[in-house]
């Protein structure tokens, strides 16, 4: 009777409980770990048995950031989130991370999505002209998105949860606003306290100019301060240290003229000059990617093999990104400018042609709404000297002699563009 009425026996209940208890979620089964060089970095490619992770992902990358302990990993996580969520840029998903030790693997690591597509560095030489135009148009779209991702604070995004958790005091220390980047993290600066977040372009340039004083101005010399970074170069002498400190102090006197707008041509109409000033002296900051080399880009074609196919363009390496003045963000990738080495992918003439096409795609293209592109155009055209000065004042103090030569060239440029204002340095 119990059977016909559908009432289970005590034995049946136990079996039902056992079946429910045995139904565990699938546990990922690793089938391979391989050292790979991907998007400009050495990583570990981890693959899983698809049956153990039916919803995916079936592979991911283990990336071990290099730089400041904890800060660099947090910046990678934070700036990736900003790129994906605020700028709407295609960037790798982050599946998990450890940003401090000790932890189960005793290393800082970020688990990243393996982006579908091809590395731009691998395919550029084989692209048809039509495909190059498509890539350049998408690159112009990406540059404008970085430019228009605004903030009132000049910093790297490091305010992300600690993993593993820290004490409240330690967490607050590592999640405070700091500005990471090659000028602030090279040589002995990497082992000093990071540059605090800033609120003005003037303070940003001043922080760049003060780096030699941070290194040499203390009561005791910082280890490695005299290292030029070149293996065959001798350490800086006492006289060279004094000369470098003097050069960067003199550069500091020029900061007020290079925070934005000083070189705007007087031939512009009053309305145009006002517009240019409003962009170059903006209190908002965009996003600058400091290492936008060709290997960082991943191209995915909508119809592989079709030269007329559209494409998406992803960017990686977000630990190298930070907030910057708008005129600093309005720049082309470094691989589109000449370098004095024999392994460039593109000829100098080809670089110029690509730059011109990217500029045209931003100014007249279909991918970027003009309402969002015109400020990038203004900052790119009229902020060229500011970007040049930023590179000069942000150079390593070991290049003091080169900096003095460039100061002479800056003076010549100044006298040509602004003869009405005396050059403030002898």
Total DSSP helices = 15
Described by its quaternary structure, the protein is single chain
User: Strand sequence of the main sheet, in spatial order?
Assistant: 1-2-3-5-4
- Gap between N and C termini: 109 Å
Our estimate of the beta-strand percent is: 5-15%
Measured as a percent range, the helix fraction is: 25-40%
Mean pLDDT, as a whole number? 93
Largest sheet: 5 strands, antiparallel
Along the chain, the helix and strand elements come as HEEEHEEEHHHEHEHHHHEEEEHHHHH
The class by helix and strand makeup works out as alpha+beta
Low-confidence stretches: 1-15
- Total domain count: 1
Task: Using the CA coordinates, give the radius of gyration.
Answer: 26 Å
Number of strands: 12
Shape: globular
Structure in words:
The chain has 426 residues and is an alpha+beta fold. It has one domain (119-426). It is 39% helix and 13% strand. It is built from 15 helices and 12 strands. Helix 9 packs parallel to helix 15. The relative contact order is 0.13. The model is unreliable at 1-15 (pLDDT under 50).
Please summarize what this structure is.
This protein is 39% helix and 13% strand. With 426 residues, it is α+β, with helices and mostly antiparallel strands.
Give the topology, please.
Layout: H1 10-22, E1 30-38, E2 41-48, E3 59-63, H2 71-85, E4 94-98, E5 109-112, E6 118-119, H3 120-123, H4 129-148, H5 168-174, E7 178-179, H6 182-185, E8 195-196, H7 201-209, H8 211-216, H9 238-252, H10 270-280, E9 285-289, E10 297-301, E11 311-315, E12 321-325, H11 326-329, H12 348-364, H13 370-382, H14 384-393, H15 400-417
Antiparallel strand pairs: 1-2, 2-3, 3-5, 4-5, 6-10, 7-8, 9-12, 10-11
Region (Disordered): 1-26
Biased composition (Polar residues): 1-11
Protein name: Protein kinase domain-containing protein
């Amino acid at each position: 009777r119990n059977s016909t009425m559908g009432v289970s026996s005590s034995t049946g209940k136990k079996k039902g409980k056992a079946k429910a208890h045995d139904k565990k979620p699938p546990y990922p089964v690793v089938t391979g770990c391989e050292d790979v060089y991907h998007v400009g970095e050495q990583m570990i490619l981890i693959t899983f048995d698809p049956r153990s992770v039916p919803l995916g992902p079936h592979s991911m990358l283990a990336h071990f950031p290099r730089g400041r302990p904890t800060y660099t990993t947090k910046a990678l996580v934070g700036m990736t989130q900003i790129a994906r969520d605020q700028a709407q840029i295609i960037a790798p998903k982050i599946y998990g991370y450890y940003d401090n030790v000790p932890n189960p693997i005793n290393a800082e690591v970020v688990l990243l999505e393996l982006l579908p597509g091809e590395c731009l560095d691998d395919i550029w030489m084989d692209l048809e002209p039509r495909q190059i135009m498509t890539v350049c148009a998408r690159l112009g779209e990406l540059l404008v998105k970085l430019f228009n991702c605004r903030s009132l604070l000049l910093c790297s995004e490091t305010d992300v949860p600690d993993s593993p958790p820290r004490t409240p005091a330690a967490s607050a220390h590592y999640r405070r606003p700091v500005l990471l980047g090659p000028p602030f993290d090279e040589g002995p600066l990497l082992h000093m306290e990071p540059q605090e977040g800033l609120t003005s372009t003037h303070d940003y340039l001043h922080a760049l100019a003060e780096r030699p004083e941070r290194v040499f101005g203390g009561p005791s010399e910082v280890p490695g301060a005299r290292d030029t970074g070149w293996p065959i170069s001798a350490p800086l002498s006492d006289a060279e240290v004094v000369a470098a400190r003097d050069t960067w102090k003199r550069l500091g006197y020029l900061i007020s003229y290079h925070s934005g707008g000083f070189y705007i041509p007087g031939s512009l109409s009053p309305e145009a000059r006002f517009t240019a000033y409003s962009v170059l002296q903006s209190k908002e900051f965009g996003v600058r990617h400091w290492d936008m080399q060709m290997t960082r880009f991943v191209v995915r074609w909508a119809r592989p093999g079709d030269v007329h196919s559209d494409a998406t363009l992803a960017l990686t390496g977000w630990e190298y990104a930070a907030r910057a003045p708008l005129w600093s963000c309005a720049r082309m990738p470094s691989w589109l400018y000449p370098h004095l080495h024999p392994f460039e992918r593109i000829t100098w003439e080809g670089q110029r042609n690509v730059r011109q096409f990217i500029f045209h795609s931003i100014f007249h293209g279909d991918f970027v709404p003009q309402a969002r592109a015109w400020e990038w155009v203004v900052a790119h055209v009229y902020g060229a000297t500011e970007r040049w000065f930023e590179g000069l004042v942000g150079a390593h103090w070991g290049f003091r002699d080169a900096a003095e030569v460039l100061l002479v060239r800056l003076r010549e440029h100044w006298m040509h563009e602004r003869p009405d204002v005396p050059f403030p340095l002898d």
